[in-house]
Design goal:
Layout: H1 2-13, H2 26-51, H3 71-87, H4 91-104, H5 122-163
Helix pairs in contact: 2-4, 2-5, 3-4, 3-5
């Protein structure tokens, strides 16, 4: 009995945005992909590839969620991927993240932001600039993987709906 109470309490404390509450018809999601999302995906891929033509990406530490042919999980996976893309805070992926969120009708939870400190010394600023450049490359690499996975999800959705 105590385990049941703890489980229920844990479920109540979980944020409701971990999964998508929208039950938009999959055909409408596919139509949005064909009309809007596919163009944004291609444009974003081109922008990111142009920024890092010779850079090779290191392997990601954490494996990203991938889509499976199970149609019930595709919408939830797209929601998670769109939120990860939004949280990268790259100007190149912002539009695509919003487009995917609109397509599945699931907004991402807002992330709180810290106020930056205004005092810094020049040496610290130089190190920070180098660190920020490396961080930007890692973000671009992660964005490339996210783009590939989002494309895969929409292609699986299209294949499933074509077979039905």
């Amino acid at each position: 009995m105590p385990l049941l109470c703890i489980s229920l309490l844990a479920l109540l404390l979980l944020p409701p945005t971990l999964s998508c509450g929208s039950k938009r018809p999959h055909e409408e999601i596919r139509n949005d992909y064909m009309a809007i999302v596919q163009t944004d995906l291609n444009n974003t891929r081109e922008k990111i590839t142009a920024l890092m033509p010779s850079s090779s990406c290191p392997a990601l530490k954490h494996k990203l969620r991938s889509c499976t042919p199970n149609i019930t999980n595709i919408e939830n996976t797209l929601h998670i991927l769109a939120c990860k893309m939004k949280n990268l805070r790259l100007s190149h992926t912002d539009r695509l993240a919003v487009t995917v969120q609109y397509s599945i009708r699931c907004p991402c939870p807002e992330k709180s932001t810290k106020e930056p400190s205004l005092t810094s010394r020049p040496a610290r600023r130089r190190r920070r600039n180098q660190h920020n450049k490396n961080k930007e490359i890692k973000k671009l690499c992660k964005a490339k993987v996210l783009l590939s996975t989002v494309t895969q999800c929409y292609e699986i959705l299209n294949a499933i709906l074509t077979d039905i």
